[in-house]
Amino acid sequence: MQVELLEIVSNKEIAHNIYEMVLKGEMVSSMNRSGQFLHLRMNDPNLLLRRPISIASIDEDTCTLLYRIVGKGTKDMSRYQVGDFVDTLGPLGNGFHFDFLSEEDQVCVIGGGIGVAPLYELGKELVANGNHVTFILGFANQDDIYYYEQFQELGKVILCTDDGSAGLQGHVGVALDQVDPTAVFACGPTPLLRLVQSSYSHLEHVYLSLEERMACGIGACYGCDTKKKDKRTCKDGPVFQRKEVVL
Ligand SMILES: Cc1cc2nc3c(=O)[nH]c(=O)nc-3n(C[C@H](O)[C@H](O)[C@H](O)COP(=O)(O)OP(=O)(O)OC[C@H]3O[C@@H](n4cnc5c(N)ncnc54)[C@H](O)[C@@H]3O)c2cc1C
Ligand code: FES
After folding, report:
1. Which of 7, 97, 121, 206 could form a disulfide with 34 if both were Cys (CB 3.0 to 4.6 A apart)?
2. In a 10 Å sphere around its CB, with 0-12 CB exposed, 13-18 middle and 19+ buried, how is residue 86 labelled?
């Protein structure tokens, strides 16, 4: 873990209120696992707490973040220009592990909304590991969809929208019976994680990435403990085995 000013290579809106920010810096070389996150200090000095954003892609000398504008911090981020620097603490947290998988294993990766973001790097890593990946991706509607083509390059994508404006109508639950995987990885809102947790109770390898609100990001403040209280999302997670967390 280190603090570094990462340089913005690009920052653009790619779907309704969803932005893609590409960053460059030494820290990229220490990013080696999907599911980890960066803790960004906002340029607006009134915003004291850092904001956690997942690493969506790790490339040769850049990393990519995908974020949704929900409040002042993410609005501030959307205004950053190419060549600006972002004070970044990272990489943080424990990401996705899949060393138990054998080549050719079928894997299901399930994401909802902005929770789809960290699953892109995971997908790249699973494909490099020789696994067959089916992505089940849920969005509110057609305007919220991002990275659809990028995921299609990695495997089969089953798209779901709440209003049926693209793909299957309904949340990701409508597609779960289409896959019989060895392992499942998921990130998204709590109801999605709860559904995945209960639907795959017969499987050993089910991993959920939580997005609790955070303060310090390094395990010091206990501001992000899970309902079980003995686990902090930032330090022990954000990825947990399904049996480890109460949602
Ligand atoms: C490990 C981790 C990884 C994350 N990865 C991403 C990512 O890749 N892309 C992305 O867009 N967001 C991600 N988030 C969520 C992101 O951190 C928040 O959206 C961001 O901090 C909001 O800051 P803000 O100042 O814009 O909003 P605020 O003004 O702080 O809040 C605006 C609204 O959003 C709600 N909110 C804020 N943070 C969260 C949260 N963590 N969960 C649920 N509701 C929240 C608030 O309750 C409030 O209603 C991640 C969070 C965690 C913990
Ligand atoms: S944010 Fe401080 S312990 Fe997790």
Report:
1. 121
2. buried
> What CA–CA distances, in Å, run from 71 to 67, 76, 184, 226, 228?
11, 9, 31, 23, 28
pLDDT for 83-102, tens place per residue? Answer: 999 999 999 999 999 999 99
| Residue 51 marked in a binding site | yes
Ranges 23-27, 30-34, 145-149, 226-230: which has the least confidence: 226-230
2-92 has which CATH code? Answer: 2.40.30.10
> Which residues, judged by CB distance below 6 Å to any ligand atom, belong to the binding site of ligand 2?
214-217, 219-224, 232, 234
Pocket-testing residue among 16, 51, 70, 94, ligand 1, by greatest number of atoms within 8 A of Cβ: 70
Q: Of the candidates 146, 149, 166, which has an alpha carbon nearest to the alpha carbon of residue 67? A: 146
* 66 Cα–ligand 1 center, Å: 12
- Nearest CA-CA partner of 111 in 35, 52, 45: 35
Among residues 139, 170, 238, the alpha carbon closest in space to that of 147 is found at 139
- A 10 A CB-CB count for 72 gives 13
Positions of CATH 3.40.50.80 in the chain: 106-209
Nearest CA to ligand 1 atom 21: 51
- Give the end-to-end CA distance of the chain in Å, rounded to a whole number: 28
